[in-house]
Amino acid sequence: MAAPEAERLRPALRTFFERIAKERGISRSRLCTMAKVSESTVRAFLSGQTKTMRHDTLEKLATAAGMSVDQMLGTAGASPIQPLAGIDHDRMHALLVGIGLVLERERVKLSARQFADLVMAIYGIAAQDQARPFAMSKEIERLILLYARGK
To answer: Do the Cβ atoms of 81 and 95 come closer than 8 Å?
Structure first.
């Protein structure tokens, strides 16, 4: 990417990280981990130490956030972060944190796509009991590990 494009990309990327942190409670560091992108690479680009960012890096970040690169950068004619219809965001946040903790504790690594599939599958199970706040049960932990380990 040429330097003029980088100058337009930096503010959009900063805004994206700020909004993800505010609206979803996911830090830049956590999102980079989810996307399997080096946080130092992102930091160097945002600070201007590097002049380019590879498109595949942007794609990984966008995929980890559940959106396209255009949505992430706000170039799709819409807000960079679109709420998912019918999703209880507090329950989804609790689920994301819970799944992340289980995967980290068990040292299981998933691609962004596998992680997204797992989240939606477990959310579907957890959403069946809307009367209670979401809690990570042993049964849900077992299902996470079964999925993550491909059993």
So the answer is: no
- Total-model pTM: 0.50
10 Å CB burial of residue 104 (0-12, 13-18, 19+) is exposed
Q: What is the pLDDT of residue 2?
A: 40
The pair of structure tokens assigned to 57 is 């890096």
Cα-trace Rg, the chain: 17
Neighbours of 100 (CB within 10 A): 16
CA–CA distances in Å: residue 54 to residues 2, 21, 65, 66, 151: 11, 23, 17, 19, 35
pLDDT along the chain (151 residues), means of 10: 63 90 88 91 91 87 84 63 59 77 83 79 65 64 76 42
User: What is the full DSSP assignment across 14-81?
Assistant: HHHHHHHHHHH---HHHHHHHHT--HHHHHHHHHTSSS---HHHHHHHHHHTTS-HHHHHT-SSS-SS
- The shares of helix, strand and coil residues in the chain, as percent rounded to the nearest 5, are 65, 0, 35
Enter the tokens of residue 112. Answer: 């962004």
Is residue 40 exposed (0-12), middle (13-18) or buried (19+ Cβ within 10 Å)?
Answer: exposed
